[in-house]
Amino acid sequence: MKPSRRVTVDHSKTTVKYDLVGKVAEGTGLTRRTVARILSGINRVKFDLYRVNPEAFITNTSLLINEQKATVIIQHLSYNPIEERFDSSIFTESQVVENWSAAGSPLKHHIYDYAVTDSKIERKFVTDLDTAEDVVVYAKLPKSFQIPTPVGNYTPDWAVSFKEGAVKHVYFIAETKGSMSSMQLKLIEQSKIECARRFFDRLQTDDVKYDVVDSFEKLMQVVT
Length: 224
Description:
alpha+beta
């Protein structure tokens, strides 16, 4: 049997050659000249990470550039209404098999007898919606209900219809979040939310509103 020996691996260098500028240009849709200008402005300490893990450096650099591109694009984004509409079949067509263990108890005001939730926050939100006197009907929106954005399609979580009277808006699109702090929301998610606000503002109706809430109490503060 040959004696064992310890091998020391130097992670600071790689023998694989990468076209750094070309790969980042390919991942961002920018020209090589633009990418080269961006890379030349990176702090030397940060740029040295390329030698440690070139693939991760290329991936992360492309992601950061794309996020910044999206931010600039969204500043000038607008939506135009079209004639295409969703009908009620959106709630039944192309639905995936749900995990009914997360469905909870039967509901009175949801469009289905049950609602599958992803967290305790959503389950509490459902309970409050289902027992509220001002709520006529509500639905957890299917993934096929999508708003196009520069950073990917976006689906709000809930649609809620209220009684007319004390509540100002008959329909309300709400998305529940575990944290309302923008610092704890990823930039891509923040960008999609900003696009959703512009999308619903473009509908030009007082009956349809969109907002981000983390509780039923917050929702009622917004709509009353």
